[in-house]
Amino acid sequence: MWKTNFYGRWIQLFGEEPGSYRANKLKHAFQDVAVMWEELDTWLEETDGLYGASTVSTDELYWKIGYPISQALVRGSDRQVLTRFFAATRLGPHNPNEVSGRELLRRLRVWTAGRDRRLSPRLMEELAGAADTNETLIASLVRRLADDWDGTLHEPEREHRRRAVGLRLMVADRGRRLEWLAEACEGIEETRVAVQGGGRTFTLCREYGDVYGGLESLHPSPQQLAHGIRLEGDDLVLEWAPQDVVLLRMHPHLGEWVSTEYFEPGEQHWILATDSAVAEVRSMVNALGGRTVREAASPAAGWKLFKGVRAVNGGAFARTLDRGGDHAHVLQPQIRHRAALSGGLRIAPEYRAGAGVAGHFLRGGAPDLLLPASDSADGRVEVVLDGRTEKLRADPRVPFPLCLIPLEEGEHQVGTAHSSQVFTLHDGLHEGLPPGTGTLGYPCGSTARPELSEAEGPRAAIRGADAPDSIALPQTVLVRSPVLEAVLLDPYGGVREARHQPAPAWMISRLPEEAVGPCLETEVPEGFVWLVYRKSTRWSVRALVAAADIPPPQPSDGDYAWAYAVRSAAQSCKIPIWLAYAEAAEAIAGRRGA
Fold it and tell me: I need a labelling partner for 575 at 20 to 30 A (CA). Which of 104, 133, 165, 362 fits?
């Protein structure tokens, strides 16, 4: 609610025409309403809080209408800012995952921590004082706004409402490269966006995993990470909200580490932290116990990468969260209102649409049960496992290990009376030996025998080979989208075509066609340092080794195929060594033209 349009709404409420005699009379008569607010404030003060504390306030400029405005928890300006928050936290139109009000408040506190997001002081005050138990008034209100959000930004100055998505940060190539990742919007298959302020323009196309391709040449810089970046188009806005600590989890389709909104107990995570936050993050992850976390250099200067962060000790995890700290929010799990499953020794996911099965697990390695927050006075949650009911007093932040319960092979259902999950347990996969398996192995019972012998028949044996240290796996490169043509380049004018590899027969026989997905995967011979490839809309280039290890270009005058390939993607990469390759290619092309 804007102060400047309050009287317009006030007059509209009484059904009068703006500027009429009765409308002007209503406007002047509002002084009597202001007096009522003052009397209410005085009465609340005189009763010493018997009927509640007064929150009535106003300001000098709009002192009359300031009283009712002070009681509005969410103003019109807040609604505009909250659409950016919903996009930044990747909520999804109409809250499809039914994120609870308490979880939205937790994310909103993180989003506003230490930064002015232009939310009203009244809302910020309510946000700071809201309890974490039960659904408070402000939590319910934000949840209603999230449920009604259509996925667009509130921009009154624009006739066309634009969709909005929060950018994700992807740490690729085993922690050696940073990329921006944008999730695809329903109904927008292809679009163009530009860096805010008239910067570079990028063409986005939907690719495998429901993400947009086209941002590969926009390399995240320390400045973008620290201050944020915004890409705008006629249909779509992408934005990264700056943060000092970034939590990452393995993406289910891309196989790379991607930023996420909340910590998942029992799962592996990476944490990217600025140098100023490294000491506190190191203290937090060490307090979790379990295996030692590995620290590594980050692809971005001024940042450190923590690998293998996992919470397996429930008590240590709860104590770490309760201890708090400036960056404790990075370890906060999602506040749930439904039961869910996490972790476990998964044999296979469930591909049957509508089967209602969360996955298939090895017996003895059942998943953990994530309990919803309890609203009962004793803090207990009623859990139903295969029809049997038990009340558990458990911290909803810490998963309950179902592997402690002896469960038979087969299907099981677990959860609460309001929400449950189905999963299956198996003693193992019994498909026989794959074609081409050798006949020699090490027979084993409880332990393997040291002597190599014939391993035919039904008896258990470890079959394999003793590979010498000199054998190394070939380097491979993967592009997760359809590629029309691609070539590998070396520094000396060498060009080699990169061809699509067919999906293995075992994969095609076990997965539906849409699960395999189109992609380019090829081996990289020794000495090749660039991959240049063309998709339906543009050329792209990717360095196959670290930029510092790429030799300067040394092509011959007649390496025209090499020069053509480099020139095709000359504008797709701003790495200095690539620009040197582009100059060499232009020189060859110029000599040919002469």
Answer: 165
CB 317 within 8 A of CB 342: no
Give dist(CA 414, CA 383) in Å, integer: 7
Exposed/middle/buried for residue 350 (C-beta within 10 Å: 0-12, 13-18, 19+): middle
How do the residues of the chain divide into helix, strand and coil, expressed in percent and rounded to 5? 30, 25, 45
What is the reported pLDDT for 476?
86
> pLDDT at residue 131 above 70?
no
> For residues 573 and 565, what is the distance between their CA atoms, to the nearest angstrom?
13
The average confidence (pLDDT) of the chain is 83
Q: What number is the average pLDDT over the span 370-379?
A: 76
Contact between 588 and 559 (Cβ < 8 Å): yes
**Consecutive H or E run containing 506:** helix 505-510
d(CA 145, CA 141): 6
- Buried b / exposed e over 132-141, threshold 16 CB at 10 Å, is eeebbebbeb
Answer for the pair 243, 376: CB distance below 8 angstroms, yes or no: no
Q: Please, how many CA atoms are within 13 Å of residue 192, restricted to the half-sphere of its CB?
A: 6
Whether the Cβ atoms of residue 147 and residue 219 lie closer than 8 Å to each other: no
Tokens coding 334: 């999602």
* Residue 162 CB neighbours (<10 A): 16
- CA atoms of 254 and 479, how far apart (whole Å): 10
The whole-number average pLDDT for the span 314-341 is: 85
Q: Please tell me the least confidently modeled range out of 298-307, 506-515, 530-539.
A: 506-515
Q: Give the sign of the dihedral formed by CA 429, CA 433, CA 437, CA 443.
A: positive
User: Between β-strands 340-342 and 368-370, what pairing exists: parallel, antiparallel or unpaired?
Assistant: antiparallel
Q: How far apart are CA 342 and CA 288, in angstroms?
A: 18
Provide the residue type at 186 as one letter. E
Distances (CA, A) of 209 to 57, 182, 500: 51, 11, 19
- The predicted model gives 503-513 an average pLDDT of 71
Say how far residue 179 (Cα) sits from the centre of its chain: 13
CA distance linking residue 153 with residue 503, whole number of Å: 41
Task: Report DSSP state, residue 444.
Answer: B
The number of angstroms, rounded, from the C-alpha of 145 to the middle of its chain's C-alpha atoms is 22
Q: Which of 529, 521, 523, 532 is nearest to 480 (CA)?
A: 521
Residues 369-373 have a mean pLDDT of 83
Q: Is 359 left (phi over 0), alpha (psi -120 to 50) or beta?
A: left
Beta bridge partners of 442: 462
Q: By CB neighbour count within 10 A (0-12 exposed, 13-18 middle, 19+ buried), where does 160 fall?
A: exposed
Pairing of strands 420-426, 357-362: parallel
